[in-house]
Amino acid sequence: MLTIKGENLKIIKLSVESGDVILEGEINNLNYSKDNFDKKQSNLISKIFK
Q1: N vs C: which end of the chain shows fewer Cβ within 10 Å?
Q2: Predicted confidence band at 7 (pLDDT cuts at 50, 70, 90)?
Q3: pTM for this one?
Q4: Which has the closest alpha carbon to 49: 8, 18, 7?
Q5: What is the pLDDT of residue 10?
């Protein structure tokens, strides 16, 4: 899971098919972790983006 923290962040473009995202704003922190993303979150996100 990639966590992005910052100020005045806006999603300009999000493509779930290609996995591309374009953000606008000030990024203060990027954190990537394989362990923090559990199945409940994964299932919820997959249902939202179907």
Answers
A1: C
A2: very high
A3: 0.57
A4: 18
A5: 95
